[in-house]
Structures are given as structure tokens and as C-alpha cells.
């Protein structure tokens, strides 16, 4: 079957309007694709998750993906993800950590249970004419809290695209999990802990929202409060 050129172009544009997080950036260097990040199901399509009640909300892991390595990083250091191609849509960026339970490794832990705590999120700029978030980033990063206990963690990056979020399940979630081994940390465990799925509801005001009209006067990120040391 031959697809009309216009349709092929449209398909290419749709995929390029989406994005993935295949490379972990740590110790100042960008690693290979899926070397330290659990390979995600959308690695070719770049497609988002739209149902926040699915198990994909943990790490969007491709069950047939390779086993990723675990990166040694210091507490207090900056760890990031390369965005492929870039953050195209409007919406917030959030980072979560999950401490790997005893008996598991970052490589074989899927992020199940109430293990996730939020370590960072950004807030929009709101004027009378528009609500906007930073966009176009080709990499994103976060500081690993200094106070968390040493050990293996999953670092979950999440970008929530809100351009179609005025109807239920219209928000698009793009996410991935890096595998890290934190050293030089402290003794304050992350909190509060939430589960994925579970932490978000389709009706959350940060997920079901018309960002265009009327222009929102506030924005509430979904999920728990940000953990602080
Ligand atoms: C994590 O770091 C500690 C301290 O450097 C080290 O002993 C341990 O082997 C590391 N674990 C992994 C999985 O790299
Ligand atoms: Cu898109």
C-alpha cells in the first residue's frame, strides 16, 4: 500500500510533535540511548500516555526492552535527560524519585507500590492573555536532594502536555525512568510517598484544564507536594 505523501508528512509531523527521554545526563556527560534509562514503549512513536490509570504511568517501560545499567551519582549533583527531539507542547515538567526496595535493584524494580516522591516541578507564567511554561528544551535536569539516603533509585521525568487537556484524558504524559545509585547522601527518606498509577486522577485540575480560554488564573500541578531536605 502506498500512502499519499501528504499523509506521510502528517504522520512524521505528529511523531515529531511528541518526545521521549532516552539518554541520561550525569557527571556532565550524555550517555547512550537507553543505557541508563528503562527503554520506553514509545521509542519509535514518541506517543504520550493519556490514561493516568495505566501501569504505563510508572516508567512507560517496554517489556521487551534491554536491561539498563545504573549510574553512580552523588547526592546534590545534577542529573538530567536528553529530550528527543525537544519539549514541544505547553505544560509542566516534574521529577520524581523512588527508592528501590530491599531485595530489588534499579534494573529489576518496576516502580510498583507507594514509593514515589516528587523532587521538583515548575510553575507557569500567567498573564491576562496567556498561561505559558518553558518549552523547546532539548535537555532537562534536576538536583538530586542532598539529604536522601544512599542507594539505588528510579528517577522519573514527566512532562504533561496540556494543549488538548480540556476534555478528559486529553492531557498527554511523556515520561521515562533513569536508574541511579546515589552516594554521599544523608538520612532523610523522601516523602510523601505515592503510587503510580494512583497519584493522579483524570479529573485533577492540573490534568483537565482548558489552558487557552478563559485564560486560567492559577495552575495546580498534579501529585503530592515537593519533598524538601
Ligand atoms: C552504589 O554505590 C556504592 C557506593 O559507592 C557501591 O558500593 C555500590 O556497588 C553501588 N551499586 C551499584 C549498583 O552501582
Ligand atoms: Cu505531540
From TrEMBL:
> Required cofactors, per record?
Cu(2+)
Using the record, list the residue span of the signal peptide; answer none if the entry has no such feature. 1-17
> Pfam families under this entry?
AA9
Q: Give the enzyme's EC designation.
A: 1.14.99.56
Q: Using the UniProt record, name the top-level EC class of this enzyme in a single word.
A: oxidoreductase
> Where does this polypeptide localize?
Secreted
Q: List the GO molecular function terms.
A: metal ion binding; monooxygenase activity
Query: A GO CC term?
Result: extracellular region
Keyword terms, alphabetized = Carbohydrate metabolism, Cellulose degradation, Copper, Disulfide bond, Metal-binding, Monooxygenase, Oxidoreductase, Polysaccharide degradation, Secreted, Signal
- Catalytic activity line of the entry: [(1->4)-beta-D-glucosyl]n+m + reduced acceptor + O2 = 4-dehydro-beta-D-glucosyl-[(1->4)-beta-D-glucosyl]n-1 + [(1->4)-beta-D-glucosyl]m + acceptor + H2O
Q: Which stretches make up the Auxiliary Activity family 9 catalytic domain?
A: 18-219
Biological process terms in GO annotation: cellulose catabolic process
Similarity remark: Belongs to the polysaccharide monooxygenase AA9 family.
Protein name, as recorded: lytic cellulose monooxygenase (C4-dehydrogenating)
